[in-house]
Amino acid sequence: MNDKDKKVLLGTVIAVVIIVVIGLLLLFTCRDNDGLVVEDVAREAPRLAEPEKEEDLPEFIEKKEFYPEGEVSAGYYVYRVNPDIRHKKYTGYYRGGKKKMEYEYKDNSKEGPLVFWYEDEKKAMEGAFLNDKRHGEFKEYHPNGKLKLVYGYNEGVLEGPWTEYYDDGESKMIEKSFKEGLLDGSFIRYTLAGERKEQTFYREGRIVRPATAESE
Question: The dihedral of CA 24, 28, 30, 31: what is its sign?
Fold first, then answer.
């Protein structure tokens, strides 16, 4: 064997050794697909914690008020992120659980329809709020359900005609008028039969003409 052949043989042996070594390394680091798991280098690195999903929290939280004996006296809603601000419906209750009143808040300000009920669930009063003040026409009812009063507010101040009815809800008892919260104009009392009983005239809350009976 000449030197050339020796070199070829030596190169072949080295190549075989390298192939065998690589094969052994692969054997210990990898497994085949017949039920064996392939080693993953990335598995050695610590896994980053997955970010926790933000829980779906409600925008509003319901709050309740209670009578001393523990019964619910009212229920309302506040913003979850700012529990000092009331929003949405407010409901008040009688002892025993029957509804007493209902209105709504808009960012801590009373806004929209207002309703009161008697304890027997008949309507007692209805009206509305605007910017936390009574506004517009209001009606009150006798316990028998008949109309009792009709009057109005302008941003929390009595304004315009005021009419009060007898228990039948049709016969007028009193008619008067307000201007900027003060009696202004005629103040008339009626008998149940509908006759004028007396009349007084007001101007800016002061009597300008004393009461006069229709019989006089």
Answer: positive
